Each structure stands twice: as C-alpha cells, then as structure tokens.
Amino acid sequence: ALAPAAVEAADRLLRAGLLDAYLSPADRVRFEEAGAMAQVWRARAASLFRVEIPAEAATGQIHRYAAELGLPSAAAVASIDGQPLVFHALSLRADGSPVPIVNSDEGFDLLFGQPSAADLDLYIGGIMRPFPAGLMTDVGLLVANGAFVDKAMQARFSPAAYHGAVVWSWQQALLAAGLARQIGRTDLPAPVRRKLQAAQTVLWRAIAATRAVQSSELWSWTYRDGRYQVVPFGAGKADVDESNAAQLWSTVYLAVQPPVR
Predict the structure, then answer these.
(1) CA dist 142 to 60, 105, 132, 138, Å?
(2) Measured between alpha carbons, how far is 174 from 172 in angstroms, rounded to an integer?
(3) Where are the domains of the chain?
(4) Which of 164, 169, 224, 239 could form a disulfide with 157 if both were Cys (CB 3.0 to 4.6 A apart)?
(5) Alpha carbon distances (Å) from 23 to 8, 17, 34
(6) What is the pLDDT of residues 85-117, one digit of tens each?
C-alpha cells in the first residue's frame, strides 16, 4: 500500500505543476506514467497476496500455535466464527505463492489509501482478531503472526524476533492514524464505520495500557497469570537484538491522539 500511495503522490505533484522546474523531457515521460501505474497496482496487486484458509484448518493451526506459545486459544478461535480465515500475506515466494503470515502492513492503506468497504472489512478482520488468529493482544498490536506457516518459518517470526510477534510502537500509531482517517470518511456504510470504531477502541485501550513503554522502539511479551505482560525486547536470552529505549519516531503520539467521542 505504501508504494502505490507514493506513486499517486508523484502523479499529484506532477499534475499540480510542482515538479516542472526539476524535470527533463525524459523525466516527464516517466512521470506521466505514474497515474496509470498506481491504478494497475491498486487493481491487481492485492489479489496476489490474498490468503484464505478453511475454518477447520485455521482452527487447528491456531490451537497448535497457541499451545506452543503457552497461550489460550478460545478467543482467537471464536473470532473466526467458523468462517474461512482471510488476510493478506506478508510477501510472495519466488514462485509467486503468498507467505501466509498475518502482518500489520494494512495500516499503510488505511492511512494513505481509499480502501473500499469490502477491503476495510478484510483489513480489520485480519489484523484485529485476537492473537494467534490475528495480531491483537492486551499489550499491543503485533507486527507479525506466524501461526499459519511451518515451524522453520515460525522461528523467524517468534516473540524473540525483531520483526516477529512483537509490538512496534510506530506501527500502532500508524494504525491509529489510519483508523481515524477512515472513520472520517463520509462514503462508508454504517456497519463498516462501527467496525472501524470498535477497532479504534480496542487499539487505544492497548496503547493506553502500555503508555510506560510507548516511546520504545519495540517490545515483546510473556503470558503469565492469565494475561499478556510487557517484556522489554532484548531482555530474553533468545532475543536477536535489543530495543532502542527512546526511539524518535515513537514520539509520534505527540500528534496522534486518542479519539474524543
């Protein structure tokens, strides 16, 4: 979603004449293609990343992954409600098949795009379900969920992995800003708006619960005494790195504020 948004921005700059002083004739020819390129990307790319897992298979994978991580699975399984689990993959393999890792990148389209009502329903369903069906925990939105890949791949996206089942503060802020932007639209059906608002409430509850660490680059978690608890990333022996305790981009909450209703 970030790439087509950038291409669309380049097209708008061109149409507004703001690039005229800087473009050679050859540059202008390339920039004239930007609008069409963005349209193709918007129309065709998402389907390449679409993952749909039958309910029975998804339920089994959720139960197994939850057991491995020492988590309850009831809420995650209930969230799919006997329906196929649908989400967008993290990436594509060399053969073009999707890598079925639930991820937080939908936030980019919420902030920079104009998704359809159907797309918004897919995005919110995919990321806001309780982990390990989706990405939501009591201590924040995880950036990746490897419940639906093999064990070798799961090890690369664990709670000890830098880009794994961990919480990145700026990704939460990105989603918060994206939800606010979509809620501000006037062309969405009421049920979709309610789903967006419900997601916003859940997300800000988690942000508030982790206020003490929100300026950190990222954090991990443990599940103990019936709840998720924050663990500084780097504190565990298996952690591949350590978190920057005062990441500049995590000060974004000076601008991204909770909703007032």
Answers:
(1) 21, 11, 10, 10
(2) 5
(3) 1-48, 102-254
(4) 164
(5) 17, 10, 14
(6) 999 999 999 999 999 999 999 999 999 999 999
Contact yes or no for 120/188 (Cβ under 8 A): yes
Residue type, 154: Q
> pLDDT digits over 27-62, tens only?
999 999 999 999 999 899 999 999 999 999 999 999
